[in-house]
């Protein structure tokens, strides 16, 4: 039996989790306040994932960059590749929240979407 | 001269939520004055996620969170002026005068019944920290760096040392790393981090960035651009320990060493400020020592969650609405008011005073503790009677706590001049 | 071929250049930094000394007392902030009163007016926050405070408007005597001139020693300072000195002309002529000494600390004029305190000598006045309305701590010898000088600088040279 101490990063509460594993399988998550904490604990020890937030260049916008995020969490080890992919992207204004900037980034299945509106530069 | 019922100073999360709430309560003659070129305040540069879990039950980025409020304000047709700087607020016989200026209107002198202060806060700069060394380019507060990277599309530098483990510092450690910079270390003067636990995990640990607690910067090298900084360990009095110096070469030093509510306007107006929070002293209605002037958000006390700012601002908005609706009707000067006295580990509470007769059925008091505590009870005493008692596994100065008081508990003890809030051993 | 080349665009070089510009002379100022006022002139006590301290008959005494009068007039002509707030010298022991009397006598010999020794309760009536340990104090009503940035910039700008050329980012490497005068070699080419003015601050000995056998030796003496928030600006109303020692006038506490409170300087002899770093020990010393004058000096309200180097010459006095063996080479060397106060007098003195030697006539079209950038934070409502009407940019506040507008920043960039860096804007407008120390306004000022100078933000610097502010993503 193996245990791992984690801090849940789902929300700012930051619950201290204790995950118990047996032969690579999670048998127990303790310390969580909500169900999200349990699934975070399970996932973090087997297949850790993160939401990635960044920004990409905007052409012809009233501001030079637009903030973006992965619409769902992606495997942690793909973060670097995703950042590299985002560097090559430039979008044309206007941009609206939710616009897909990059589909299925790095084969993660997650789309990258805009998180703010950018108007056309007047 | 233009006359308003309510002027809200600041169009960030606090100002927006306050304006929306006031409008929803029937205040139609209101105006937001915002100094930046768009509404949303500092949220516009906080492109990371983690906002809105309480308010919207989903995880949003800063700009998304702001947009929800901007959209709601637009729906309600809340008027606002952008790039408008308030220069002065004064009060005469209840009516307030707000002096502001912008490109279009020139100098504005506006009269209003009520004011909501929502100016936010600023970062403590290098100068105020008295960090010795040269004064080269490459020293930025974390928030300035955040703006440069996330809104202007530039990097402040490539090799970074961060002093202070406040949330913005932690967030920027990750952000700079993702953008290809090398963040060598985060140093924290205190023996604990000032940021949220989750940020230490996902911003530092995820990227193997070391966090050095009880460390500070004792020298900055570089005559034109930063070439390195020297860290040293500090003792329990936060004084550097000779012999522990360690040099880090870098071209950038980011500072995340605390936020200070921006209360210059409030102080000039004669509003009583708290020495602990640097914000106004307020009562249960979030009203300051000047009648009809309310405060909310980071100008009142520095929050760690925008959700709480929105909730607080909403209350400020509805109390301001109430004040406007009762304008000149009831002059209740002599109201029973009691003080909330923080003791034993509790640094401050907001509000600091309560007028039980004006309380809603429930009142949320927010507070911070002065050190890291494990397994303590938060207790509130009304005389000898304990009216609140709750155990917390862990409390830290970086994380705001709250208790909820019942009106009936306070009105049951008429004449009391204070209630006491303190931490107690389990 | 120039008539005069001035080395150094600090307050002394700028004052000399301004006075020379009244004559029909072809004058050039060479400056190694990117702007005027980048050395000692930007990091000092910002005091206009009354002139009681220097040895009677010394250059320091003569130039200080005359300079004090001239600054008052110049501040009106050239529109820079000056205030005659009076200064005080404190003594903490009964035995020190004799020394105060000596100082008073010396001052009177130097021609300082209105000196008075104050004892008893009047001390605290004049300055309620002074220590109760004060036994007596010398009051010099002619002491004043000035903005050293704006004063230097005003002098240089006025010189420039009157035809003096300024070349920045150019370091003098060698000076050679020629048949007609001197050849000044720089990293970017050489300049021929009849006369040279050596106003090179802590490097003045180096240049003197290139042309004269009468060697000078300058030791940079570092002074560290703490500048406090405007909230602390009324802690004292006079400039408060302590009885001077061998190392200088000691730590003073003074309001600044912009309403902050300043404490400093320490005094530490240095080898490094660029050693303007602050130190923990220096700040600690400063704090300890300042508290001697006033226990409650609000050092916790510090918004920035900085250090400057005084150019202390071993002879102890200013070195002014031509060395015997180097005709046409005019020194303004060893300009330590009271250098700022003396600069206008030094300017007049050297310009007179040079114009006589070269037989230069006065110009008939000399422009003797200039107007500074409008200051919105100090303007009346009517003035603000008028400014915004003329140019809406004066309604757009960029620096919120000091209420500096886009109009002022643009003006600072566009005017003669305009700002080219973040610090250049700061010294001209005070944008970034306030309590947040440019946290909010730096990105916006950069945007304006890039736009006005037609540069990429990546090229912008804090203070010229390699002090780049940004890198690419």
- Cα radius of gyration of chain C in angstroms: 22 Å
Mean pLDDT of chain A: 93
Measure the end-to-end span of chain C: 47 Å
Mean pLDDT of chain C: 96
Of all protein chain pairs, which has the greatest interface, and how many residues does each chain bring to it? Answer: B-C, 52 and 52 residues
The quaternary state of the protein chains shown equals: heterotrimer
Could you tell me the CATH topology label of the largest domain in chain C.
FAD/NAD(P)-binding domain
**Count of beta strands of chain A:** 10
Strand content of chain C: 15-25%
CATH architecture grouping of the largest domain in chain A: Roll
The stretches of 5 or more residues of chain C where confidence is low (pLDDT under 50) are none
Please write the string of helix (H) and strand (E) elements of chain A: EEEHEEEEHEEE
Q: What is the H level of CATH, i.e. the homologous superfamily of the largest domain in chain C?
A: FAD/NAD(P)-binding domain
CATH class of the largest domain in chain C: Alpha Beta
What fraction strand of chain A? 35-45%
Instruction: Give the tally of structural domains of chain A.
Output: 2
Shape of chain A: elongated
Could you say which overall geometry of chain C the principal axes of the C-alpha atoms support?
Answer: globular
Biggest sheet of chain C: strands, sense, closure? 8 strands, mixed
Question: From the alpha-carbon coordinates, what is the Rg of chain A to the nearest angstrom?
Answer: 18 Å
**Low-pLDDT residue intervals, each spanning 5 or more residues of chain A:** none
């Amino acid at each position: 039996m193996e245990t791992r101490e984690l801090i849940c990063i789902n929300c700012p509460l930051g619950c201290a989790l204790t995950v118990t594993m047996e032969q690579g399988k999670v048998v127990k998550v303790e310390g969580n306040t909500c169900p999200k904490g349990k699934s975070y604990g399970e996932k973090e020890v087997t297949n850790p994932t993160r939401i990635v937030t960044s920004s990409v260049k905007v052409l012809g916008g009233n501001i030079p960059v637009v903030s973006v995020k992965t619409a769902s969490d992606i495997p942690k080890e793909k973060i670097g590749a995703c950042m590299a992919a985002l560097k090559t992207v430039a979008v044309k204004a206007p941009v609206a929240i939710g616009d897909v900037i990059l589909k299925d980034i790095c084969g993660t299945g997650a789309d990258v979407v805009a998180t703010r509106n950018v108007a056309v530069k007047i | 001269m233009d006359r308003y019922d309510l002027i809200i100073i600041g169009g960030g999360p606090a100002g927006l939520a306050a304006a929306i709430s006031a409008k929803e309560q029937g205040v139609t003659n209101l105006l937001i004055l915002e100094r930046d070129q768009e509404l949303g305040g500092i949220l516009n540069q906080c492109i990371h996620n983690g906002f809105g879990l309480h308010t919207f039950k989903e995880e949003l980025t800063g700009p998304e969170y702001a947009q929800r409020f901007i959209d709601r304000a637009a729906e309600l047709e809340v008027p606002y002026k952008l790039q408008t700087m308030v220069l002065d607020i004064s009060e005469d016989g209840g009516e307030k005068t707000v002096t502001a200026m912008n490109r279009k209107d020139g100098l504005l002198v506006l009269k209003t019944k009520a004011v909501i202060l929502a100016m936010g806060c600023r970062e403590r700069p290098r100068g105020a920290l008295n960090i010795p060394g040269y004064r080269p380019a490459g020293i930025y507060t974390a928030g300035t760096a955040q703006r440069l990277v996330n809104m202007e599309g530039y990097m402040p530098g490539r090799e970074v040392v961060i002093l202070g483990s406040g949330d913005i510092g932690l967030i920027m450690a990750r952000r700079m790393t993702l953008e290809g910079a090398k963040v060598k270390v985060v140093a924290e003067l205190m023996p604990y981090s000032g940021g949220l636990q989750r940020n230490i995990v996902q911003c530092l640990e995820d990227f193997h960035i070391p966090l050095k607690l009880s460390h500070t910067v004792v020298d900055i090298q570089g005559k034109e651009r930063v070439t390195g900084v020297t860290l040293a360990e500090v003792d329990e009095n936060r004084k550097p320990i000779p012999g522990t110096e360690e040099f880090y070469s870098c071209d950038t030093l980011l500072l995340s060493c605390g936020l200070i509510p921006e209360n210059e306007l409030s102080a000039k107006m004669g509003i009583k400020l708290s020495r602990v929070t640097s914000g106004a002293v307020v009562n249960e209605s979030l009203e300051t020592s000047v009648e009809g002037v309310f405060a909310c958000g980071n100008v009142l006390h520095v929050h760690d969650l925008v959700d709480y700012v929105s909730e607080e601002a909403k209350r400020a908005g509805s109390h301001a609405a109430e004040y406007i609706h009762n304008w000149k009707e009831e002059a209740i000067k002599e109201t029973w008011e009691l003080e909330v006295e923080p003791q034993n580990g509790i640094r401050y509470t907001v509000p600091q005073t309560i007028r039980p007769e004006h309380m809603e059925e429930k009142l949320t008091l927010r507070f911070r503790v002065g050190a890291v505590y494990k397994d303590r009870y938060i207790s509130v005493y009304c005389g000898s009677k304990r009216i609140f008692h709750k155990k917390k596994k862990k409390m830290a100065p970086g994380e705001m706590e709250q208790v909820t008081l019942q009106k009936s508990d306070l009105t049951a003890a008429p004449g009391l001049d204070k209630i006491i809030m303190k931490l107690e051993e389990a | 071929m120039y008539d005069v080349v001035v080395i150094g665009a600090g307050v002394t070089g700028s004052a000399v250049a301004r006075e020379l510009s009244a004559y029909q002379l072809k004058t050039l100022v060479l400056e190694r930094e990117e702007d005027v006022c980048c050395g000692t002139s930007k990091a000092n006590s910002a005091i206009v000394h009354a002139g009681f301290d220097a040895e009677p008959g010394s250059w320091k005494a003569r130039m200080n007392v005359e300079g004090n009068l001239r600054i008052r007039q110049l501040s009106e002509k050239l529109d820079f902030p000056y205030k005659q707030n009076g200064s005080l010298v404190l003594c903490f022991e009964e035995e020190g009163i004799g020394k105060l009397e000596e100082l008073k006598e010396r001052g009177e010999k130097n021609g300082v007016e209105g000196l008075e020794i104050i004892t008893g309760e009047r001390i605290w009536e004049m300055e309620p926050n002074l220590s109760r340990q004060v036994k007596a104090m010398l009051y010099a009503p002619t002491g004043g405070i000035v903005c050293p940035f704006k004063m230097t910039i005003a002098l240089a700008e006025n010189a420039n408007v009157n035809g003096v050329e300024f070349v920045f980012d150019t370091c003098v490497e060698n000076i050679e005597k020629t048949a007609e005068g001197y050849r000044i070699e720089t990293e970017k080419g050489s300049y021929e001139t009849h006369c040279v003015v050596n106003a090179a601050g802590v490097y003045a000995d180096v240049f003197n020693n290139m042309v004269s056998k009468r060697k000078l030796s300058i030791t940079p003496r570092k002074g560290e300072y703490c500048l406090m928030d405007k909230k602390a600006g009324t802690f004292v109303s006079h400039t408060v000195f302590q009885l001077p020692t061998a190392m200088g006038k000691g730590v003073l506490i003074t309001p600044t002309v912009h309403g902050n409170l300043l404490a400093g300087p320490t005094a530490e002899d240095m080898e490094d002529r660029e050693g303007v770093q602050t130190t923990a020990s220096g700040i600690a010393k400063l704090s300890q000494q300042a508290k001697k004058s006033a226990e409650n000096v609000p050092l916790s309200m510090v918004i920035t600390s900085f250090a400057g180097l005084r150019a202390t010459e071993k002879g102890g006095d200013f070195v002014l004029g031509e060395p015997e063996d180097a005709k046409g080479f005019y020194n303004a060397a060893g300009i330590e305190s009271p250098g700022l106060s003396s600069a206008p007098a030094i300017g007049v003195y050297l310009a007179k000598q040079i114009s006589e030697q070269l037989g230069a006539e006065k110009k008939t079209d000399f422009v003797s006045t200039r107007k500074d950038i409008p200051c919105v934070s100090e303007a009346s409502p009517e003035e603000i309305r008028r400014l915004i009407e003329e140019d809406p940019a004066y309604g757009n506040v960029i620096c919120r701590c000091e209420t500096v507008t886009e109009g002022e920043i643009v003006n600072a960039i566009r005017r003669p010898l305009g700002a080219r860096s973040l610090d250049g804007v700061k010294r001209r407008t005070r944008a970034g000088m306030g309590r947040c120390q440019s946290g909010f306004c730096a990105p916006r000022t950069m945007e304006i600088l890039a736009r006005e100078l037609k540069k990429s933000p990546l090229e912008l610097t804090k203070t010229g040279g390699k002090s780049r502010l940004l890198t690419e993503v």
